[in-house]
Design brief:
Rossmann fold, alpha/beta, 5-stranded parallel beta sheet, two-stranded antiparallel sheet, 311 residues
Amino acid sequence: MVQSRRRPRRSRAARGGRLSIRARTGDRSGSSGAALQARIHPARTRPRERSSRTSPDRGAPVSARSQPPPRPRAGAPARWTPRRGGTTPDAGPRPARRPVADVILVVIGHAKTRSLCHHLLDAIVATLEASGEEYRVHDLLGDGFDPVLRLEPEATHVSRNGERPRSLIQQYRDDVVEADAFIIVHPVWWFGPPAILKGWVDRVLVDGVALSHPAAGPPRGLLHHRRALVVQTLNTSPFVDRVVFGRLAYRFWRRGVFQPVGVRRVRRVAIYGAARITEQRLQAARERTRREVTRVAGAMGKSRIANSNRK
């Protein structure tokens, strides 16, 4: 009969290839094993020493987290860290926040003096009048706006001072700088805005007004903290606009115009079947436009209240 030897019991540490002290010494009580472990690993049995550093004014121990941050090296650039109230000791005062002017700029581009877009423009103006918000209207055809852009042969892009604009274009540019919200109204022709409205983009949203061209790097938008509403009339159906063409006319404004200049919050009102619109659908379109304009005006009021609370 073969007698089996009982193997020593393994602890959790033995799973990594080490036997416990009890298995090595054969001690069941564990007293000599603990002493041997203290001799082998004195750092594990030594109690942790608390820091003896004390605060100079209170005499209480100072933890590592309460220590002041290290001073920056001489010649190192100062880093600005946002702090609610006051200033940082190494970066100077907090940057000033842009004041809210509460001006809504409405731009309409159409080849006719009276159209469905002008009918919606009347609803927009009436809603803004009822809300009490300040607004300005750029009626490109009524103002005699010239959309043709003329540059010198050596010019690479349009700047605020590069072209000698007429007083009308200069007024348009000043209105864009002072505006806090934009409402664009136009029909969709050839999957985009009419030429007169595209000329407004080319001649008004120029370098120094809507964006800046640094010496190195991509252009930077200058119209941050604004919002926009695009009201478009189309002769097509919602299926063709959304599924077939992927809202191409809306993406022109959202991705091609407003996003590069810094406007992130863009909404849209699309009126489909404009050539066959009925009186009932016209009233529904007016109501939708009023709701969106009221939403823009309400956001302007919230911004005004928030800025007054910061003062």
